[in-house]
Design a protein that fits this description.
Layout (H helix, E strand, L loop, with lengths): L1 H21 L4 E3 L2 E7 L5 E5 L14 E3 L3 E4 L2 E8 L12 E3 L6 E2 L12 E2 L7 E2 L12 E3 L6 E2 L12 E3 L6 E2 L21 E2 L12 E4 L5 E2 L12 E4 L6 E2 L7 E3 L4 E4 L12 E2 L12 E4 L5 E2 L12 E4 L5 E2 L12 E4 L6 E2 L13 E4 L4 H6 L8 E4 L16 E5 L2 E6 L2 E3 L7
Parallel strand pairs: 3-6, 4-7, 6-8, 7-9, 10-12, 11-13, 12-14, 14-15, 15-17, 16-18, 21-22, 22-24, 23-25, 24-26, 25-27, 26-28, 27-29, 29-30
Antiparallel strand pairs: 1-2, 2-3, 5-6, 19-20, 20-21, 31-32, 32-33
């Protein structure tokens, strides 16, 4: 009896699965499958998947030209949308033409279409939904129409070949991970309409070299440009009320808090900044040296984590706090100068995975013994006093000045003179 019941249960499940497969679409014309969304005039359909999203979805189909209208059983339907996951994992798809009649795209429409190279987006859609082009690794060019106001989460995540991106003039929100790991993207022209950019939106865009933020931008997510190793220019519009890039610093400063929240390899920390924010330079592997000037009181957690090319750090006299793992993973670090008038409060594992045993720490002479006894600081291979001569900051800016390394120490050569890392002539 139990066996019969079990077999009946299995049979019911089989029928349900069969029903799901059979009802995957209402009809098919040519290579394209459709579901009816309106059985009353005007009759409407959406493009849907051929097989429940799987490796067999539109298998072998390479070029798709979706019509504005399609006829089935003597009824003419308007094609107004492309449904969720319609071309999911269609590895053979190389090109698709979408008619202007389409006003809505569902989530993950072209998810993992790894051969897709070109696509035209109709001029009436208002959103590029989450995961629309996720892992479309062959997609090279996209023009976002002026009708689009939102680019959804992970919409272009892992589009590694994308190098030509044109954003329409109405985009207001770029969600998190939207262009993450678009490694061929060299330039992004953000329209003046952009108000919000989500966290890690451009994470890992290794070819991106410059970014300009308009006056309307009022919300920026964390780790926005982490891993953008070639980013060398960051400019905020002078009329922006929330952020600024004062003094040509090539960074983003949260104006109300005088906190530097995003830096790049060419950043010069302004003297008016009081905080280097969490993750401000995280993953900035192109950064080789940094001067944290007097006036900065706090370096927050992970501020310089994974800056793998960072060799030299100079910290001003006003720093009182260095957060957890602030310099973790800075594997090239050989020289740290900390001019703080008192030992800074240290977070956990500030120099985690940093070869401090092979690095030199320079500190005020009167605090030399204190640093030698202090946790984390005492692990430096050499701890030496800072020269008593007044620091000549100007030497770092002199025209023609250049850096050189000698026995693990940075020296500055300007004309026929040589200076140590504190600007003292040798």
């Amino acid at each position: 009896m139990n066996y019969i019941r079990m077999r009946k249960g299995v049979f019911v499940i089989f029928l349900v699965m069969l029903a799901v497969q059979v009802s995957a679409y209402d009809f098919k014309v040519g290579d394209v499958c459709y579901n009816v969304t309106s059985e009353m005039e005007p009759f409407m359909v959406e493009v849907t998947y051929e097989d429940y999203p799987s490796v067999r979805n539109y298998e072998g189909v390479s070029i798709v030209d979706i019509p504005e209208q399609v006829t089935y059983n003597d009824t003419v339907y308007n094609v107004t949308s492309i449904g969720i996951s319609a071309f999911y994992n269609c590895g053979s798809l190389t090109s698709i033409k979408i008619p202007e009649s389409v006003t809505t795209l569902g989530d993950s429409v072209f998810y993992q279409c790894t051969s897709l190279q070109t696509v035209n987006l109709p001029g009436r859609i208002m959103m590029i939904p989450p995961h629309t082009f996720y892992h479309c690794t062959s997609l090279r060019s996209v023009s976002v129409p002026n009708s689009v106001v939102i680019i959804g989460e992970s919409a272009f995540l892992d589009c590694m070949a994308l190098e030509d991106l044109r954003l329409g003039e109405s985009v207001g929100e770029i969600a998190e991970n939207a262009f993450r790991k678009c490694r061929s993207l060299k330039e992004v022209l953000l329209p003046n309409s952009v108000v919000s950019i989500g966290k890690t939106a451009f994470y890992g865009c290794t070819e991106l070299s410059s970014i300009h933020l308009s006056a309307k931008v009022e919300k920026l997510g964390n780790k926005l440009f982490e891993g953008c190793v070639n980013l060398s220019e960051i400019v905020v519009d002078k009329n922006n009320q929330t952020y600024d890039s004062r003094d040509g610093c090539n960074a983003v400063v949260l104006t109300s808090e005088n906190s530097l929240i995003i830096g790049c390899k060419n950043t010069k920390v302004p003297h008016s900044v009081v905080t280097i924010a969490k993750n401000a330079f995280s993953g900035c592997s192109g950064l080789e040296s940094i001067y944290i000037p007097d006036g900065v009181s706090s370096v927050e957690e992970y501020a310089f984590s994974l800056c793998t090319s960072l060799k030299e750090v100079r910290i001003g006299k006003d720093v009182v706090k260095i957060g957890d793992k602030a310099f973790s993973g800075c594997s090239a670090l050989t020289s740290v100068t900390c001019a703080a008038v008192a030992l800074p409060q240290m977070g956990y594992f500030v120099f985690w995975y940093v070869p401090v045993a092979d690095a030199t720490l320079y500190v005020p002479a009167e605090l030399l013994e204190a640093y030698k006894d202090a946790e984390q600081w005492k692990n430096f291979g050499a701890i030496l006093p800072i020269e008593q001569t007044k620091i000549e900051q100007g030497v770092w800016e002199r025209k023609g000045a250049r850096k050189m390394w000698c026995n693990g120490q940075m020296l500055i050569v300007s004309g026929d003179k040589m200076y140590n890392i504190m600007g003292v002539e040798l």
